[in-house]
Amino acid sequence: MSAAFSFSIENRIKNGQGRAGTFLTPHGHIQTPCFAVVGTKATVKSLTVEQVKDIGASVVLANTYHLYLEPGTQIVKKGGGLGQFMNWTGPTITDSGGFQVFSLGAAYKQSVSKIAELRLGDGADRSSDDILINDSTMAKVTDDGVEFKSYIDGSAHFFTPERSIQLQKDIGADVIFAFDECTSPHASYEYQKEALDRTHLWAARSLAEHKKGMEISQALFGIVQGGRYNDLREKSARYIGGMDFDGFGIGGSFDKKDIEATVSRINEILPDDKPRHLLGIGDPLDLINAVEMGCDLFDCVAPTRIARNGTLYTERGKINILNAKFKNLFRPIDPHCGCYTCRHYTAAYIGHLFRAKEILANTLASIHNLYFIISHVKRMRAAIINGDFADFKNAFMEKYVA
Amino acid sequence: MSAAFSFSIENRIKNGQGRAGTFLTPHGHIQTPCFAVVGTKATVKSLTVEQVKDIGASVVLANTYHLYLEPGTQIVKKGGGLGQFMNWTGPTITDSGGFQVFSLGAAYKQSVSKIAELRLGDGADRSSDDILINDSTMAKVTDDGVEFKSYIDGSAHFFTPERSIQLQKDIGADVIFAFDECTSPHASYEYQKEALDRTHLWAARSLAEHKKGMEISQALFGIVQGGRYNDLREKSARYIGGMDFDGFGIGGSFDKKDIEATVSRINEILPDDKPRHLLGIGDPLDLINAVEMGCDLFDCVAPTRIARNGTLYTERGKINILNAKFKNLFRPIDPHCGCYTCRHYTAAYIGHLFRAKEILANTLASIHNLYFIISHVKRMRAAIINGDFADFKNAFMEKYVA
After folding, report:
1. C-alpha distance from A364 to closest chain B C-alpha (Å)
2. Cross-strand pairs, B313
């Protein structure tokens, strides 16, 4: 790990895998477990950076694929790198673009009929603000790289592991990811196996390219893949975990019912002394399980995407603010919430903004949901530090699931 | 005037009509001349109230027609009235809905072919976030009131002067307006004359209804109409100006070339000791002329509407941020601007947000344009107080028009 980075573990869940730590980056420390807010296109949708700070966020995750297409990585570089370009002074992360190349590139002007089979929280929603998933055979994959089409204008582009690392170097986030092949959750075992071999090959090439540019202070995370197959997941964890990465991402899709056991097994294999980022998972209950199973970092577009549809978290579960029963509710969405939205606006007013299709609806709802998720993960961290994670989990579940 | 209100003039332009004053309302004083920000549906589009305060706004103007349809005036009333409902603690104004009833109601599912002939800044854009204008004969007008259709679902509604005042009482803004007939700028002299008589009849009925509810601390402004005909404008100014209103609105459309002379003539006739609100005018140059001719209050959707299209004010005129020349401009939109946007973000970044169709583009651009217009009017006030309005005007024009 570059000297500009370090990861230390402060406490652990008794007899468990979960841990609380501190990940130091050139732009400040990240207290883990931590939820990174998604700023796909160098903006956390509908929020100013002051609002992002105000909700307690400490890390922003942007996307290489999107920034490559617009405004272009050279513009971000000239603007001082991701943080300065978007006026965010804290730590930043970029995803490698692997997921987007396969999901968005393949889906350009094609049928996206498989979307309906996928749902938020199934792990398919990795780091993107777009949920299009399609048959991965529609992007042209060779061992060399991937040819894909721009979701903006259909123009053809080619990404290799080396290219992804170079682009991420230009963007200049603190943490970058190896380029991987992200398969469809419907891919066969045979295809998953072939794709995994390629992902491992690409991990080595990503790492080699990264080491060429070590004068730049960036940490490179490798990505564990393997889809829904436990043997492939274990193989991947051993392979990627054995390489000289600064941390690890756990990518791809899971069966909802298997996620706990699979993630637990992966984390048993991965080195204990490096941070682990579970990519694209943001459901409050999934987050509890993932923290318990030893994941340190998270990101997901779900909190802001569902917010823009009027779905809001409360300590008693999700609500839809468009429900008629909120029309006359002149109190906050969640009376126990300390977010800006709940401190200043009523449920009736926010419901009105949604009905009136006002932009401010997105802003206030996004603030609320991100604050909820960030605070939720912070409370887990505090519970691990204080040695009462099990009590926290029981208390949360009792209200949230009831 | 209710005891809760007062208007005092502090200084005047030498040998001119313009004046600087203070208009005291139950929710604070308004230093005039003043630009009221438009919050049509109880929200200043894309901004939180903290952002609205931060740009220096002191008054919010909402719309009776829109709030009547959604969320309903009873909801606003139950929410504590307009200010509390939207979390705005300062002074508030509602337009009577007259303009919207004729423009939006008449236009529901109808041809709106006349729109193209109208442009922002022509005075047709009064207090609404919608620019639809149609032949006023398409709303069913009788001396009793107007039947119109909801722009949301086409349902039929009926407004009378009494009803408008009652609705505005429920909404509870500090300043409310008499219900008027807003004619098409293309209406004949004969029709304008007939409509003006009706507006005068409705002014009397609005005033009578208002006086029934004088226990409520609201100021009622009458509206001068008359379209593009100077004799009708003068007649209206004499008639409305002679009534016991707390202030006056100048509504309807003008010929751009006549606006100065017409507004000047109207203000010569209106009582000197009451505030005058020029409805729906917000162009920087029009504002200078209107202040010079003795108008005290303004509102217009143009600054935020053009902002959402990427058109931004600078001291050297308007720019479109989507222009390619801004792609690599890593400095603020206007280096001399003190707004939040210019203090924190570059032109390159804002252009990126617009190209990426990100919501934050609207927010940052609206903050900039509103700050520009509000500061512009505040500078005019300071110039009147300091006795150097002519110098201010020359200095502004020299840069802005060049």
Report:
1. 8
2. B318
pLDDT tens track for B80-130? 999 999 999 999 999 998 888 777 655 444 433 222 233 333 333 443 334
Tokens 């939720």 belong to residue: A376
Residue A95 is among the residues annotated as catalytic for this protein:
yes
Would you call B355 and A49 a contact, using CB atoms and an 8 Å cutoff?
no
* A388 annotated active-site: no
Q: Tell me the per-residue pLDDT of A330-383, one tens digit each, with 9 for 90 and over.
A: 999 999 999 999 999 999 999 999 999 999 999 999 999 999 999 999 999 999
- Judge residue A317's burial from the number of C-beta atoms within 10 Å of its C-beta, 0-12 exposed, 13-18 middle, 19 or more buried: exposed
Q: Going from the N-terminus, what domains does chain B have, and what CATH number goes with each?
A: 8-300 (3.20.20.105), 308-400 (no CATH)
| A48 contacts B352? CB cut-off 8 A | no
From the candidates A54, A95, A170, A296, give the one annotated as an active-site residue.
A95
Placement of tokens 């949301």 in the chain: B152
Cα A14 to chain centroid distance, Å, stands at 27
Question: In the A/B pair of chains, how many CB contacts fall below 8 A?
Answer: 110
Q: Which has the closest alpha carbon to A364: A353, A375, A348?
A: A353
Q: How far is CA B396 from CA A67, B285, B390, in A?
A: 39, 9, 10
Contact (Cβ atoms closer than 8 angstroms) between residue A262 and residue A19 = no
- Residue B356 with chain A: CB contacts under 8 Å: 41, 43, 66, 70-71
Q: What is the pLDDT of residues A124-142, one digit of tens each?
A: 344 333 433 444 445 788 9
Q: Which of A122, A283, A296, A299 is catalytic?
A: A299
- Both tokens assigned to B383: 């110039």
Contact yes or no for B43 and A346 at CB 8 A: no
Would the annotation count A188 as a binding residue? no
pLDDT at B133 over 60: no
Please tell me whether residue B80 adopts helix, strand or coil conformation. coil
Q: Give this complex's ipTM.
A: 0.92
